[in-house]
Amino acid sequence: MEFQNKVKILAERVNNLKENIQTEEATKNAFIMPFIQLLGYDVFNPLEVIPEFTADIGIKKGEKVDYAILQENNPIILIECKHWKENLDIHSSQLHRYFHATKARFGLLTNGIKYRFYTDLEEKNMMDKEPFLEIDIENLKESAVIELTKFQKASFDVDKIIDSASGLKYSTAIKDILMHELAEPSEEFVKFFAKQIYSGKIITKKVLEQFTEIVKKANNQAFKDIVNDRLKSALHKEEQTIIQEQEESQEEIKIITTEEETEAYHIIRSIIRTKIDANRIIARDTQSYFGILLDDNNRKPLCRLHLNSSKKYIGLFDQNKKEERIAINNIDEIYQYSDRLIATALMYE
Questions:
Q1: CA distances from 233 to 185, 222, 227, 236, 299 (A)
Q2: If DSSP codes are grouped into helix, strand and coil, which group holds residue 202?
Q3: Mean pLDDT to the nearest integer, 133-145
Q4: Tens of pLDDT along 289-299?
Q5: SS3 helix, strand, coil % of the chain, rounded to 5?
Q6: 342, CA 20 to 30 Å: which among 85, 103, 242, 304?
Q7: Helical H runs in 252-327?
């Protein structure tokens, strides 16, 4: 959540300042350097970020890429920058040459608004023509921001990014094709449906024209139905959350947190803080159980403690957030479930 908020703040900065940014150099200073810092790299430390990085290409010497991000003195990301008004479609060839001349596995082409990430999925050491990830700072999508977190200094892992890049690249391409077909269905797309439902033997040009309009309308209606269903589902979940919070608020008046519950909370906090910031691990006592949440969010339960009766239990959650109650004799036995507690916390990341 903290990283996503930082990205949103940068997006607001871009929106507020861009009309005052007149040059490529100003674009770098106002938009791109803050972006690099957002990923956790020190732009003023030449051991992490080198501006005007030299990438000699064959007999061409002194070719420079705008920035290189380093790891153990080796470039891992090459960044080519353009003015924010520039169309990036005509500039990837320059980054392609730099990529081939270094050991970096990732290239980033950006105008401070759009960030296109490239790698070498198709041919080793040769940058792909198409990016596997694109971030539009003015049209942020949660899925893209999640992928961007993988490039943070603290979690950067070349192999993990490469593993996910292939699926990401092709799923993005498929999504683009689907969006185009939904808006302007091709002849092949229309025939696919017509062949399955048209009773005639031959699909004539006239029949194809009729089905083209039918497919367009069906696409639009299906899309609207999906959106409406999602909205209804989201509203229902929100209503349920509000009701639950109201009920819990009324319960708080009657709640007494015991010393044993407090001690158990500190045990669980000490276990999970090895992987998650301790400030995000929050206790919330109720009449029926002592709950521990991530980010104080009811939708992110870490565990529940049932300690106020003769039989004591710890409630652990699976990937579907289904609680499994496990009997314990005392709170020290909580340590036996350290791996499951950590796995639950990481599930929400």
A1: 29, 16, 10, 5, 15
A2: coil
A3: 89
A4: 999 999 999 99
A5: 50, 20, 30
A6: 242
A7: 259-272
